[in-house]
Amino acid sequence: MKNYITSPEPRTAFGNGISASLGRLLKEMGVKSAFVAYGQSIKKHGLAEKAILSLKAEDISVTEYDGVIPEAPDYVVKDMAARARESKADAVVSIGGGSATDSVRAAFLLRYAEGNIDDYFIGGGKFLTKDPEGNGIFVAIPTTAGTGAEMGAGGPILDTKNSLKGAVFLPPRTPDLVLLDPELTVGLSPYLTYTTAMDALSHAIEGMTGKMRSHRSDMLCGQAVEYIWRSLPRALRDGNDLDARGELLIASGLAIRAETLRHIGHAVCQPVGARLHLAHGYTCALVLPETVRFMAQTDEISPELNLIARKMGLPDNGKFKYIGNRIADEIERMNIFCGVKTLSEEGYSADELLACLPITMKDGRLLPNAPKAVTEKDAEKVLMGMYRR
Fold it and tell me: pTM here?
C-alpha cells in the first residue's frame, strides 16, 4: 500500500438552509465582526441574504464586499485584501463558487501581510510561509458543486499581466468553517450544474490515477465519482432535487480531501482557461475525455480505471479493449447531450489553442504526477481533444 498523509479538515455544517446558521456558529466562536465577500450574481439572486441576516441577528457587525468576479483575477484579490484590512473584521466569509473561495482565501491571507498578490507570483520574490498572526477566522460557503475549494487549502489565482492562472506562494489554509447548503445551488442552470460537476469529476478521476494515488484516494475519489454520476442526471432533470444537489456538493469536497494531485488534464486546461478567458468547469468538461484516453492503456492504473467504470455503472461489455476508452466515450456522450461545445465550435482557432502548449510543457507541478511520462505530442493530442471531437 502507498503512504499518504492527511491534511486538516475544516469544521463542516451540512444541510438544507444551513447558511442561516452562520451567525450562531460564528458567535459561538467569539466573532464580533465579519467581512462578507461575494459577486454580483450572488447579490442578484439573493444567495448571501440568509447568511448576512443571521450575522446581524446575532449582533455581529457586517462589512459587505460585492466585487468578487469569476476566475479569481489578481486585481480583485488586491482590492479585496485592502478592503478586508480596513474592516479589521474578526472573520472573513466567502460566498460563491470555487474561484470566489480561492480569491477570498488569498485576500484573507494577504490582508495583514507585506506587499500584494503580485509579489507572490513566481518571480515576484516574496513567500508567505505562515498565516499572519491575528488574521482571524476564514469561512467558506460554496454556491456551486465543482471545485471543492471550500475543503482545500489553496487555489489558483489569475495573473492578468502574464495571462497565467496558477498557484501563488501563500501558505496552505483550509477554512475554519464550511457551510454546505444545497439550497444555494438550486438556482444553477443545467449547463452550469453540469460543467461545475465536471470540474469535480476531473478532480476525482485525476486524483485516482496520478502517481500520488493511494487507497485513500480510491475511497474518497471513488465515492465522489459514484455520487456525481448517479446524482448529476437527477439534478439536470429537476434542479430542485435537494438530495441530488446535496450529493454533488459532498462529492466535490470528497475529491479534494483525498490529498492527491491532478495531472495532465488540469495542466492543459488551466493555461487554456487563463489565455482564452474560459470558465474552468467548461475546460474541465472538454479536456476530461482525452485525459482518460491518454492513460487508458497504462497497466499500472488498470485497477483504478476499472473502479471508476464500476462507480459510473459502466461494466465492461467486451466491446472495448481498454475500459478507459469506455469511460472517455461516456463522458464525451454526456458533454454532447449537455451542450458542451468544442473550442472549434465556439469559434476559436487551433493556433490559439496550440499557443498554450509551451506553457503546459513548462508545468513542473501537475505534469510529473501523470501516471506515465507526458511528451509534447501527448499534450498536443489532449489539447486538440478540446478543439474537436
Answer: 0.94
